[in-house]
Specification:
Pfam families: AAA_18. By secondary structure, this protein is an alpha/beta fold. It has a single domain, classed as Rossmann fold, CATH 3.40.50.300. Helices cover 42% and strands 12% of the residues. It has 8 helices and 5 strands. The chain has a 5-stranded parallel β-sheet, sandwiched between helices. Helix 2 links the parallel strand 2 and strand 3. The two termini are 38 Å apart. 30% of the residues are buried. The structure holds adenosine-5'-triphosphate and Nicotinamide riboside. The site of adenosine-5'-triphosphate (ATP) has 16 residues, from helix 1 and helix 6. Nicotinamide riboside (NNR) binds next to loops.
């Protein structure tokens, strides 16, 4: 089984959906899960002391349902591969045989059950002013009440980003003010680059699935010197030091 799970996280209006849709169209055998599809109904979302509906926290989302979807995709990919092998189909080139899953959302990297699912994590950032401007053109259901951006959305984003950075686990930051096509081309090339070492990568993943801690795979990859993939087998509790990844400084987000 060859699967590759891509996280497209980031700030509200950072361009996650735009990027995820482009990748979804261009990657073969690719599925897409959008976190926004798992919001609870308005009545089930808590209200804070100022009267703001607290949409920008994990509790506003049915994350268990989202995980069920992700796990079901993993199972289906596995079943599809088994069926193909049972039918003695000619094995395709390794890259062709990969099943891609894109998970897109604004609160991906502080939700622990998803953490080991990702093979590659991207995070789009845009500055406060740009974010506020883009958000003001959007109409959510329910629409943002006055002062919602400053009173709830942006503070929750900063909190989430802070938590994420404290536990940095191989996230590639993207500057969401760059041209849409440039961001897409960079990410697409980065994913293809990861695919170049597909064989060893899949081996590492199946070892982890067999129950050996991911940190062992991490060590294995370091020993074999496959630097490009160091960030993949992320081990949140392994105690290993985060390895900064600077693939394309021009696209790095700094906000
Ligand atoms: N690279 C870009 N440069 C300028 N504008 C962009 C860029 N990418 C997306 N946009 C615009 O920003 C707005 C938000 O984009 P998009 O819906 O992709 O963001 P998002 O992160 O999915 O937002 P949210 O999750 O909050 O709904 C849209 O109007 C989109 O056209
Ligand atoms: N989709 C929804 O139900 C909903 C309702 C109200 C607000 N939001 C906003 O969506 C963004 C994530 O894409 C968050 O910033 C929410 O505030 C979504």
């Amino acid at each position: 089984m060859k699967t590759f799970v891509i996280g497209i996280g980031g700030v509200t209006n950072g361009g996650k959906t735009t990027l995820a849709n482009k990748l979804h169209k261009s990657l073969p055998n690719c599925s897409l899960v959008c976190q926004d599809d798992y919001f609870k109904s308005e009545a089930d979302v808590e209200t804070d002391e100022r009267g703001f509906k607290m949409y920008d926290v994990l509790e506003a989302l049915n994350m268990d349902d989202m995980m069920t979807t992700v796990n079901s995709w993993t199972k289906h990919s596995k079943d599809a591969e088994t069926t193909r092998q049972n039918q003695n189909e000619i094995p395709r080139k390794s890259e062709d045989g990969v099943y891609f899953l894109i998970i897109e959302g604004f609160l991906l990297y502080s939700y622990m059950p998803l953490d080991n699912v990702f093979n590659k994590k991207y995070f789009l950032t845009i500055p406060y002013e740009e974010c506020k401007k883009r958000r003001s053109t959007r109409v959510y259901e329910p629409p943002d009440p006055p002062d919602y951006f400053d009173g709830h959305v942006w503070p929750m984003y900063l909190k989430h980003k802070d938590q994420m950075e404290k536990a940095e686990r191989g996230i590639v930051y993207l500057d969401g003010t760059k041209l849409e096509d440039d961001i897409y081309s960079f990410v697409y090339a980065d994913i293809r680059k990861a695919g170049l070492h597909w064989g060893s990568w899949c081996q590492a993943r199946s070892v982890s699935l067999a129950g050996i801690p991911l940190c062992c795979n991490w060590a294995l990859l370091q020993l074999t010197g496959r630097c490009e993939e160091r960030q993949h087998p992320t081990a949140p509790h392994s105690g290993s030091q985060p390895i900064p990844q600077i693939l394309n400084p021009g696209l790095l987000g700094g906000t």
